[in-house]
Design goal:
The complex is a heterodimer of chains A (336) and B (127). Chain A is an alpha/beta fold. Chain A contains 16 helices and eleven strands. Chain A has an eight-stranded parallel barrel, surrounded by five helices. A two-stranded antiparallel sheet of chain A has the order 2-3. Chain B has a two-stranded antiparallel ribbon with strand order 2-3. Chain B has four helices and seven strands, in the order ββββααβββαα. Chain B has 127 residues and is of the alpha+beta class. Chain B has one domain. The chains are: A alpha/beta (336), B alpha+beta (127). The interface between A and B is large, with 44 and 51 residues.
């Protein structure tokens, strides 16, 4: 494994491109025919404006995503059940907003706010900032404070709805029952009106604590308003049990790594895909599984899932997991 | 140019470094410079085709690379994907160039501090 070794990735053929006339004809036929519009353009290279137009047509087919009302500890904010990620493809921002996504994960990382977001009234959407204190600088309150203030200045966002401790805490001692530098920075920023709620995107495995241990501490502290967690078709039952406990405590729950980590198991489970009314669509199946997961009391545990979207096919497949028209057509009742 | 190598497998979910490329099945060691080469090829593919999905796995690797950086800005040259153990004493700063490119591609400051730590005083040119 030398640094100058070449990587032989599968060769790809030159992609087909469309003239305006060909594009309109193909889009019209695909819209009328039903199914995924992206299938009509498989293996083709679309221009940014063609991608935007196709995505808009897809939303008309898919319908809007449903919203969920979070608990009182989050001010009852109503968020779309698919969360937009800052690192999604730039040309998918507009269609994502049109589909009803109104929560943007990692918005603080934007070097400059995209025009589509600048055009919106600030109160019409929600954002979190992922504060990088916890993996490398667990005791650096000033660093955390500085990161947030600099991001607000760079983006012009005025405030972040959620200050999210990025990666979470490496050990239970590092969390220290909530008495830690990240929480102290949060309190200062909240007093200044720069952030509203305290959250975490807690990692597990890879040297991080198991969820039953660390989440129990975080729930017990009473300080965490929102958790973003690794939740997928591969998540262990004992992890789902503690996540359910967090949700019952009024903590908002967003799933991350849902397709990335659930993909392998779901791909091999055609019966599950069929049960989720998404046969052949592994991404859609993964998201439906998580967003419809019900706890011991028969109630849903996961409020939303963050989905990093990089192309039109991912947009259509993932948004279609809960979008109203297609879910109804599939016979998958995500809103019950 | 060196030998052609293939990205043939992905590390399992229950390994310390899950969902990383493997040189071959059952090969637990991974060179960080090799990872950077794979990631760079995928970014090149995304740029050539206009399909950002090629860069999808790269985001996960970059996310975890941030946690692997030492306080002097360097990364271990080689790690065991299954156990997380650092192999040998060699260090590398190669991830900085790739992280800078990824941040620019995404209009993101997510990796800026890692790049700055790796490149300040190191003579590495990320341009």
């Amino acid at each position: 494994m030398k640094s100058n070794d070449r990587i032989a990735l599968p060769a790809h053929e030159a992609l087909r491109t469309f003239s305006r006339r060909e594009f309109v004809r193909t889009l019209s036929a695909a819209t009328a025919g039903g199914g995924l519009l992206s299938a009509a353009f498989a293996g083709c290279s679309l221009t940014p404006s063609q991608r935007a137009e196709a995505s808009e047509a897809a939303i008309d087919n898919l319908g809007k995503i449903p919203k969920v009302k979070l608990s009182k500890r989050l001010g009852g904010m109503e968020i779309g059940r698919i969360v937009l990620c800052q690192d999604s493809g730039g040309d998918l921002i507009a269609p994502s907003l049109k589909a009803g996504m109104n929560f943007i994960h990692k918005a603080g990382y934007w070097g400059s706010l995209p025009d589509e977001i600048k055009a919106l009234p600030r109160e019409s959407y929600y954002v979190d900032t992922t504060v990088d204190n916890t993996p490398d600088h667990p005791d650096d309150e000033e660093r955390a404070y500085r990161q947030v203030t600099q991001e607000l200045e760079a983006t012009g966002l005025k405030y972040f709805d959620i200050f999210r401790a990025h990666y979470g805490w490496h050990t239970l001692d590092a969390f220290n029952k909530g008495d830690n530098a990240s929480y102290r920075a949060f309190k200062r920023l909240k007093a200044e009106g720069k952030v509203r709620y305290f959250g975490v995107s807690q990692h597990t495995g890879g040297g991080y604590p198991d969820y039953p241990a660390i989440l129990a501490e975080e729930i017990e502290s009473g300080l965490i308003d929102h958790m973003q967690l690794w939740i997928s078709y591969s998540t262990r039952p004992e992890d789902m049990a503690i996540i359910e406990k967090a949700h019952k405590a009024g903590i908002g729950i967003t799933a991350m790594k849902t397709v990335d980590q659930g993909h392998g198991k779901m791909q091999g489970d055609q019966a599950k895909q069929a049960e989720l009314k998404a046969a052949g669509m592994v991404g859609r199946s993964c998201l439906r599984y998580v967003l419809d997961y019900k706890g011991s009391d028969g109630k849903r545990v996961v409020d939303a899932a963050v989905s990093s979207l990089h192309n039109f096919n991912q947009f259509e497949e993932n948004v279609g997991s809960v979008a109203s028209k297609v879910a109804r057509l599939d016979g998958f009742d995500i809103e019950a | 140019m060196g030998n052609e190598v293939a990205y043939t497998a992905i590390s399992p979910l229950d390994w310390y470094y899950a969902h990383f490329p493997m040189l071959a099945e059952r090969v637990e060691a991974m060179g960080i410079d090799w990872l950077v080469c794979v990631a760079t090829e995928l970014l090149d593919r995304a740029d050539e085709t206009g399909d950002g999905a090629h860069a999808g796995p790269v985001l996960h690797w970059a996310h975890i690379l941030k946690t692997m950086q030492a306080s002097d800005g360097s990364w271990p040259a080689e790690v065991n994907l299954r156990t997380g153990a650092v192999i040998g004493l060699d260090r590398t700063r190669k991830p900085a160039v790739f992280l800078a490119r990824l941040g620019k591609r995404l209009n993101s400051t997510e990796f800026a501090s890692a790049v700055q730590l790796a490149t300040s005083g190191s003579g590495i040119d990320i341009c």
